[in-house]
Amino acid sequence: MTGTQGIKTVLHPVTDLEKAKKVYAALLGTEPMADSPYYVGFEAEGQQIGLVPNSDATSPVTYWHVADIEGKLAEVTAAGAEVKEKPHDVGQGRLVATFTDPDGNVLGLIEDPA
User: Fold this and answer.
1) Does the predicted TM-score (pTM) go above 0.85?
2) What is the pLDDT of residues 84-114, one digit of tens each?
3) Alpha helices in 11-68 (DSSP H)
4) Whose CA is closest to 111, among 71, 76, 79?
5) Which residues contact 73 (CB under 8 A, 6 or more apart)?
6) How far apart are CA 38 and CA 80, in angstroms?
7) CA nearest 64: which of 93, 28, 98, 114?
8) Could you tell me if 97 and 108 are in contact, meaning their C-beta atoms sit under 8 angstroms apart?
9) CB neighbours of 20 closer than 8 A, spacing ≥ 6?
């Protein structure tokens, strides 16, 4: 078994990006570091907090950072998880995937390029 680098990214589905952006800026005490129509991202104390409009998610998704996304996905599926979204590149070599635990909770994995 391999470990993780911890939860460093949490993505929140939102219906009104502009309204949500104001609330999260007030909560985190900072302006977004990324601000586009499809994603608004904040950095707070080493964590990435993202706002995602038009998502099919119904609750926030925590992303565990790992060194080997394929290996970790194999470990969790062998333990009973189900792949929801296979690893794919979201830009600049960053790979993301999601899976569900036995109760249907969605969890994410992120592998950053070395």
Assistant:
1) yes
2) 999 999 989 999 999 999 989 999 999 999 8
3) 17-28
4) 71
5) 83, 87, 97, 99, 109
6) 32
7) 98
8) yes
9) 12, 14, 40, 51
